[in-house]
Amino acid sequence: MLSDIKILIWDFDGTLYRPNPDLWHDVRKGEYQTIANHTGWSREKTVEEFAKLYKTVYDSATESTAVLSGISIAEAAVEMERYFDRRKYLTRDVKLIALFQKLKNFRHFILANGVIARHKETLEVLGVSPDIFEEMVTSQTVGFTKPHEAGFRYILAKTCLPPEVHLMIGDREAVDLVPAKKLGMKTCLVWAETPSNIADITLPTVYEVATILV
Question: What is the pLDDT of residue 19?
């Protein structure tokens, strides 16, 4: 099923490294702070209003933050990242380095909801060269965050290849995989303990990706 794959599209946070509850807590604080900056709301009201939108109206926390703040998604993504730093939770990952060495004959893209400069800095900490990726696509590129299809369509336009030769790799079904599958891409869920009913492939860690392709 995956023998024709030529393009690997990677989510970033929670995919290239194991999901980290402490980091997620800092990210959420950044989202709340961004909303409060633009609304003047108390922490209690900010949390309440955020909960009304996130995973109820919007699957993207960044989009929820942008709507409540009255700013663009790209602006929200940049502002949020002032309040947390992924790098303090991460270190050089020899397994990840080895993974990309095994996958060197594939073309690679990142499709994420963060800020490109921060992703590049984080990759350096992990020991993975940003130059591996043909492009990092975020709301800074297309104006929208996943699960909006804009980023996926942007990559398809860049590669000029059929959707079925693209493999989207992520840790969240609704945000990373559902829109990719809708467009005809193959999908892989990582860091999952139980098989996904949505993904074509489910893996316990990101490090096994090479085993299904090489």
Answer: 79
Together in a domain, 31 and 105: no
Closest CA to 8 of 110, 154, 101, 146: 110
Distance separating alpha carbons of residues 129 and 87, to the nearest angstrom: 15
Look-up of token digits 């996958």: 103
- Residue where a domain terminates, one of 50, 69, 86: 86
pLDDT at 192 (0 to 100): 97
- Collect the ranges in the chain with pLDDT lower than 50: none
**127 in the same domain as 72:** no
**Helix (H) or strand (E) segment spanning residue 108:** strand 107-111
Which neighbouring-strand residues pair with 58?
A: 54
CB 149 within 8 A of CB 168: no
Neighbours of 211 (CB within 10 A): 11
Residues 153 and 206 occupy one common structural domain: yes
- What CATH number did the domain enclosing 185 receive? 3.40.50.1000
Instruction: Specify the pTM.
Output: 0.96
Query: For 56-91, what is each residue's pLDDT tens digit?
Result: 999 999 999 999 999 999 999 999 999 999 999 999
